[in-house]
Amino acid sequence: MSEAVVAPAVSASVDGGATSGRKWWVLVAMVFGLFMPMLDSLVVNVALPTIQRDLNASVSGLQWIIDAYTLTYATFMLTGGTLSDRFGRKRFFIGGLIAFTGFSLACGLASSIGELIVFRALQGLGGSLLLPGSLAIISSTFQGKERGAAIGIWSAMSGIAVAVGPLVGGYLVQHVNWQSIFFINVPIGAVAVALTWFAVRESRGRSGVRRLDPAGAVTGTLGLFFLVYATIEGNIRGWTDGLILGAFGLAVVLLAAFVLIELRREMPMLPLSFFRNRTFSAAIATAVAVFFALFGMTFFLSLYLQNVLGYDPVATGIRMVPFTLMILVIAPISGRLSDRHGSRWFMAGGTALLAAGLAMALRMQVGSGYASVILPGMLMMGAGMALTMSPLTSAVMGSVDQSRVGVASATQTTSSQVGGVFGIALLGAIVTATFKSNFRSGLLTQGLPAGMASRVVAKVGAAAAAGGTPKGAVPGLPAAVRGALPSIVHSSFVGAFHSAIYVSIGFALLASLLAATFIRSHVGPSREAAEEGRTVDLRGAKGAVLHAG
User: Fold this and answer.
1) The pTM is what?
2) What is the DSSP string of 203-269?
């Protein structure tokens, strides 16, 4: 599944640097380190239906494949940046590379869905050290105009990953196996480790600038985990199951403790004081809402294209490229225009366009054509995201003091990822519940007795909720029902997918309303900043929007 990353601004090193010849090898090493997690997030999405068949995974299993990675990646990113600044960026970047590469290998060797989920979570932990360390090393190596050029090249590589990710993933899954999407990281990671070891000089942030917040990291991460766990597993165990209710209760307690801890910290992991600024709060809420809608949509779109329409992985990858191309083409333009005219109406219009694209996706049925039905909605969704994200980043950066833009940008990144985690979790719960209801109704219309229909749903409903026909024969089914089973499954999935799309539309419209109501222009001094006696200057401080999709 796809994910959006906003590179945090970073302070210059106090002891780094590189000779003219060496510094460009540093950039190559950082590009390798960036390219792996970017590519990985996209190729895994295309592989989900194949993984489902090979490992006999339910929808909740597929959700965990994405969410286990994204959750650890998002929640440890702020901690990863702090550790790198305090104890050595090169050291932790190499550690992140080794962890990401090693657990990529473990993912490819996984023999069960449980093993794959665990290794994906550990892979995300390695990834959380790569992004903040990568940009920090570039910032400490390059100065002046060279720094801007280096960051531009670094950001462009993520664009290439966006463009080729679905194609690479589709090709590997179709012509090799799904394990190869993880194995490909091993040689890339080995080259990146070697380049980093020989080319990069150790650097650290200024002494005392950032401090560890272990209590905040533990309570925040565990609180989010239990909330996601209860949301994903509630459909399987039942919403009144003691374990599910206990997980919800733990989530509330831990997240409340997280807020109290952050309020009392002198240098918290998540500065809650930022949220006193309406523009910052609205921008973060917009990011959460947008990525809630987007992650859930792209997760189920891959299942729909392969399990319902029957496209192979390569054809699926090709058909997902237009969405990312819209972002690559339009995002730089919207960024430049929003610098001149402000973020407010770009964000409001972009999220409204995203909602319109999602509404067009409601036309998708079991036999829909790609060019006439699916493509127009994908183009509108891609354009809406492209219009939104660069201005959103500018709004975040323009609403805080320039000494704290790095933390603000990292907060945006984390919030976007967390929104995506809950998009997959909650929309997955909605799709699974709606599918089971539709599936049972479809079996009843074929004349199956109610008791037998309920038993079939209980036996195969969780696995079939991804839109794929159940593996193996379902005992006791009349021949007529067995013959109609694929059609029943596909139509039930499409109906459930529509339910998720309606919720996504609601979140996109909410994002548009928030942007139109609360976002203030960041062009020139921010009014809210001026009230606090601060001057905001975005030049050279705006985070780089790497990709969304």
Assistant:
1) 0.83
2) --PPTTS----HHHHHHHHHHHHHHHHHHHHHHHH-TT-HHHHHHHHHHHHHHHHHHHHHHH-SS-S
